What we know:
Layout: E1 4-7, E2 10-13, E3 22-30, E4 35-44, E5 57-66, E6 69-75, E7 79-80, E8 85-93, E9 104-112, E10 121-128, H1 133-145, E11 150-155, H2 159-162
Pfam families: C2
Protein name: Synaptotagmin-4
GO molecular function: calcium ion binding; calcium-dependent phospholipid binding; clathrin binding; phosphatidylserine binding; SNARE binding
Amino acid sequence: MSSQETLGRRRVSVCAPRALGQLFILLQYQTAAHRIKVMVRKAENLAKLTRMPGAPDHYVAINLRHGGKVIATKETKGAAGHNAVWNAPFLFDLPSGDITKLTLMLEFIVMQGRLYTKSSVLGRVLIGYEGLEPGQVHWKEMCARGQVETARWHTLQPETLVE
């Protein structure tokens, strides 16, 4: 069954989750410096929020959260298209303590356009001690592998599912 079927002249939408796209993220825990290197590589199949013609610009805001509070924020430059490429590296200094015991979370917010409004949020990815399983797995893998970079694709989640 397709996402839309025509019945007579009326179109009926079937309630299927809308694919928002995927984000390719590389993480590395730099043990000696006690920081995380984050590389926002690229995205694929990003959804379009508006009916404006042309390929929209996308950018990614990255928040490091500790105990639910944002302690650091970084942002990529804009990249055009539905398969945006950033290759943008960022370093996040961590609070003191064992990384496996800290309540840390990396939040990636994919935005469309340059205005930070609720309507311009395309989707989010959470990587850390809580969140969806792929984000927890990537976090644990990063912590366990030390200086080795770990890269994974993450599916964007709607804002309502990750808050």
